[in-house]
């Protein structure tokens, strides 16, 4: 039975994603109506530049007054695809207060203020959905918070930034250095003119905070996420990774501790074995690997960005929120009941691959091994290589067993103080084993 | 705010999956209560053999009278993990009539009677959820019917049977023949004593019918699914596949036609390029590749069977159905509004790899090529090989461009009538390009 009064949708932002949302709402109106049980109507589009020609959007729907739009009182769902913290945050809160539910693609805002926004949604008995905020079109938020609602997630390991995966894949497949690969990513439109948010891991860290919060039913703030970018990954690191049967990916890793009482979230480049499903994720694709008690290992793969893919996720949420509205119900809200401790990076336990430049003389290995032992870091393998250039230096590559990040940091600090250690060429975590 | 009166759950079946569901309901009771918003209580467990010891399940909950259990009237959710058509079908219908919603893992039943069961659920305003019916723990039904509800799915290409994937992976990696690989699968418990349902594609066909129905919002009956098993795949086929840069998988393929007006569903072994994400799905794992207008290419990967993984999917549904119940709402029901034509196999368009045994003499290639041309099947490549055994025969391997299955069948029929064609050694479709 189809309701005939349409549900009214306000669109905030009409850029790459917003224009796709508007287009699909128009071209697929009949399908959306059938799936929702009522037609939906684009009731207004808030933009910054009203003079820009926007094909398929009637001029009378365009407004520069987003606040007035969300305050109209007859809006059923506000779709926020502006991005950034303000004015998005105030507009979303205002939308709840004026009777609308919200679909957002705003990872930065959700990572920073998710708890407050969920609280505002709850107070007003409205929905806040944001599948598009993490990994674009890949269904991830819904599987984590609904499909796995009867399971216990222990780890989320993901490639959640397409730009950096494109760069690292290029370095891996061509032997290019970081700058060369970045230049190509920029030329092809995969990297922005200022790539900082991507290459320094800010974007991935926001997604890690959101994923960890949902996976562990615990509030994880953006500040809780340890973040390292990938600008210092070198061609030599890829060569080392290959020797280990690994490649290098920028990973977002959310883990429950072995005792189950605490969680950690972090973003950094890491070696993963070539046999791991994440190792073969190419180009700008995203993929997220989820490990849980009962389901075991799951992987979700797809395009992590782009107008149409992100719009697909937004529209899936829009259908769900509209359905909830017709049902007079709301979907699952924030679930933070577990309230586990979010531990600092020092508590993370993993393996490490460390390249040292050392003096090429007897006894160095013994010295180095002693430092590892003193800090409780057990060595798995060591490879020692004299240099061809005869400068009296050698390379020492150490791969450790599992140890805490704090122990490893202590080890490295002590190594740097040894006369025979000329430099720590690289430290890379080894994940996914 | 937690409701204190528990929701009552009746479990039908307590085998590999059912016992895991009961176990997790007990061990994770607090988590489930927090996620649902009310505690859940195992109110009864219907089994065939009541004398069997079932650890952790109080004896007073065990009954052999499943009908009385679902008729009790105080049951909120019936979890059906008996499998098979009867008595499962009658029990589910009876459950709806007596006020319960249903979570089922029963692919055979859903594929055969999904429409009638959905109608029964709707009439009684109850939920029917069945994430566990397809690909075990992999969230697939929910992403297709919710996450992609605002998108247009064009193709679903999946490895949905772990037994056959284990066998084919073994044949690929070791060069073993079908029987040898099957024996190993049986020894390791991946194949049942009677492997017919798996190796003849019946299991995958049921899943294909369910997936096609949801993906295309169209009723697809089990009879509509073209089905070929994989018992005739040979080591020689794998050798041919390797020459093409391919491997062989048993695929469930649900496709929308190019004009969008009809759909097809089929299960058969096929070559897929090694570069395709499905090619690297190893062992008994399942994976489903989904192509849609806006999202592009998505893949969902994980364990497709087993007690704990299937229980994970069942429990995810149980949480959702319980939440709906507390909300006084129901989730998305059957969506068959599109009512597209389901076309027969003859209308399927794909590429083919055909191996012919032919007389080793001049003019044969011209004859063969003429037959293809007469049937409108365009040849991409031909490879002709004289045999070492000097028996006057040669091999001709033809790879076609895209053509309808009907045209290809006509071609093969005509080829068999040629004096110079001694036999058609194999015909294999080529997918995923």
Automatic annotation (TrEMBL), chains A, B:
NADP(+) binds at residues 12-19. L-homoserine binds at residue 192. It is an enzyme of class 1 (oxidoreductase). InterPro entries: ACT-like_dom_sf, ACT_dom, Asp/hSer_DH_NAD-bd, HDH, HDH_cat, HDH_CS, NAD(P)-bd_dom_sf. Gene3D superfamilies: 3.30.70.260, Dihydrodipicolinate Reductase, domain 2, NAD(P)-binding Rossmann-like Domain. Its EC number is 1.1.1.3. The active site is at residue 207. NADPH binds at residue 107. Its cofactor is a metal cation. Pathway: Amino-acid biosynthesis; L-methionine biosynthesis via de novo pathway; L-homoserine from L-aspartate: step 3/3; Amino-acid biosynthesis; L-threonine biosynthesis; L-threonine from L-aspartate: step 3/5. GO terms for biological process: methionine biosynthetic process; threonine biosynthetic process. It catalyses: L-homoserine + NAD(+) = L-aspartate 4-semialdehyde + NADH + H(+); L-homoserine + NADP(+) = L-aspartate 4-semialdehyde + NADPH + H(+). Keywords: Amino-acid biosynthesis, Metal-binding, Methionine biosynthesis, NAD, NADP, Oxidoreductase, Sodium, Threonine biosynthesis. Signal peptide: none annotated. Residues 353-429 form the ACT domain. Pfam families: ACT, Homoserine_dh, NAD_binding_3. GO terms for molecular function: homoserine dehydrogenase activity; metal ion binding; NADP binding. NCBIfam families: PRK06349.1. Catalyzes the conversion of L-aspartate-beta-semialdehyde (L-Asa) to L-homoserine (L-Hse), the third step in the biosynthesis of threonine and methionine from aspartate. Belongs to the homoserine dehydrogenase family. This is Homoserine dehydrogenase. It comes from Streptomyces brasiliensis. The lineage of its organism: Bacteria, Bacillati, Actinomycetota, Actinomycetes, Kitasatosporales.
